Amino acid sequence: GISLDLLEQKCSDEHLKSISLFLGWRRVAPHLGLSKMDIEAIEAEKRTEGERRLKVLQKWKMKYGSKATYKSLITVLLAIENAEDAEGVCALLQTPADADKHSAPTATATTPTTPDDHQQSSP
Length: 123
Description:
Layout: H1 4-7, H2 13-19, H3 25-28, H4 36-45, H5 49-64, H6 70-79, H7 83-93, H8 107-110
């Protein structure tokens, strides 16, 4: 499991980089407190989806400071019924700190999957 102490911590920059590899940023950005202007500015200034995903998380962390915790991010993801990304954050938190920090958590890391599990299309 994940300790409550860890959930209450402010998200680390390293974890935000990992989360940005899978986050559905367009859907979650308004729920993280980013304004329509913030979102439009990110779209204009960042060329790739990866840069945009990371910028949304960085902007959220900058705006909310110590309140930008893993628990608050997971809570927002669950509130908008994005369990897949919430599970990704949880999987990341269960990874030992000295593990390869550059790999994104995947469903296969925690549960066996069958080819049928991968037929879902992404937005």
